[in-house]
Amino acid sequence: MIYGTAWKEETTARLVEQAVTAGFRAIDTANQKKHYREDYVGDALLALKAKGISREALFLQSKFTYKEGQDHRLPYDPKADFTTQVKSSFENTLKNLHTDHLDSYLLHGPRSGRGLIESDWEVWTAMEELQKSGKTKFIGVSNVGLHHLAELWQKAKAKPQIVQNRCFAVHGWDEDVRGFCLSKGIIYEGFSLLTANPQVVSDPGVAEIARRLKATPQQVIFSFVRQIGILPLTGTTDPKHMKDDLEAGSMQLSEADVDAIGAI
């Protein structure tokens, strides 16, 4: 399970430190001060290192975000070409996180909803070079439709290894993209699993499964998504929920339970 750091502002460092202390070993962030404080994540990493939790014990994932997704606090010169923007943003990320490499680096989202455009390909090529140099182990993309992903897989020299999308139960938990990922061996990360699906979390059928397993409905949902091929992100700010969410990793639902939740 990955700990997500979006929308936490000045509480970011404290919450990341709490999450890792609770047992999380994967952290998701982005070089986008509009929604993330990557620099505060770095502050937490320094504090954790002092407690004996090394950089090598953690999986760090960040993202390149286009100007359109940023506010005025840009991590690059917007007048520069996209290759330079990616390099500048990435180097700033390494500085923020006090590391010399990332485990995963994602394009925060394609620039057009219709399909991949020239800027996307320039950014992806720059990301391929970062991976080739060993500065990041994985590269991938976030907030994509199936048409984006299929085109990227078909034409890219280095194939995407990770996809991160918001999951809605009404869309079959992103069934089309998730299915493509499963067929190609791409890691599928899902976010907003609880907040985007309150009708499922509060469903009587989920409550009954939770009672039977002596679990919470939230733990049931996290167990469900894992079993259908989703690596879950959670951004909880509650220390008890951090513990509960991690414990869901050892739960196993029956096939009938998985089918019942999928039918809601």
What report would you give on this structure?
The protein has a single domain (2-203), classed as TIM Barrel. Helix content is 44%, strand content 15%. It has eleven helices and eight strands. The chain has helices at 12-22, 38-50, 82-97, 118-132, 146-155, 175-184, 198-201, 204-213, 217-227, 239-247, 255-262, and strands spanning 2-4, 26-28, 59-64, 102-107, 136-142, 162-166, 187-191, 231-234.
SS class? alpha/beta
Shape: globular
- The CATH class name reads Alpha Beta
Compute the number of helices: 11
Q: Which CATH architecture is right?
A: Alpha-Beta Barrel
Low-confidence stretches: none
Portion of residues within helices: 40-55%
Cα-to-Cα separation, first versus last residue: 24 Å
* CATH level-3 fold name: TIM Barrel
Oligomer: single chain
Order of helices and strands: EHEHEHEHEHEHEHHHEHH
Q: Going across the biggest sheet, name each strand in turn.
A: 1-2-3-4-5-6-7-8
Strand percentage, roughly? 5-15%
Number of strands: 8
Please name the fourth-level CATH homologous superfamily: NADP-dependent oxidoreductase domain
- Over the alpha carbons, how many angstroms does the gyration radius reach? 18 Å
